[in-house]
Specification:
alpha+beta; 6 helices; elongated
Length: 127
């Protein structure tokens, strides 16, 4: 979001801020690897992985964020505030909370196979 007296300058400021705040996401195909809740202010955003084509987003702002991130199969629920800026910030907080299997295994001092429930034989059979 950028503020200025004229629209072109506000757009330019918004683009500059967006470039500074790029994030790396841990995705599982076109969905998220696990359920996550992001909180910002008085609002919260619940995101859950979905199989198939269940990408339903009531809020246009959340739909755009998920579309840009490449996430198509996810269920989202807004809790609390309906302010679009706070909802987007809660969505970003939720996306920042995503972890891949290696990070979870490291924090739990387990192997990736124990976390995912796959053995090396099963993983080789799926390929």
């Amino acid at each position: 979001m950028g503020k200025a007296r004229e629209v072109p300058m506000a757009i330019k400021k918004g683009i500059e801020q967006a470039k500074k705040n790029l994030i790396q996401l841990n995705l599982k195909g076109t969905t998220i690897p696990h359920q996550v809740i992001g909180r910002y202010g008085s609002g919260a955003k619940f995101c859950s992985a979905r199989g198939g084509r269940h990408g339903r987003h009531r809020r246009r702002s959340v739909r755009k964020v998920m579309q840009v991130a490449g996430i198509r199969n996810v269920l989202t629920k807004s809790i609390g505030t309906s302010n679009p800026h706070n909802v987007i910030k809660a969505t970003f907080a939720a996306l920042l909370g995503l972890k891949d299997a290696a990070q979870v295994a490291e924090t739990r001092t387990k192997t990736v196979e124990e976390i995912t429930g796959k053995t090396k034989e099963k993983a080789a059979g799926e390929s």
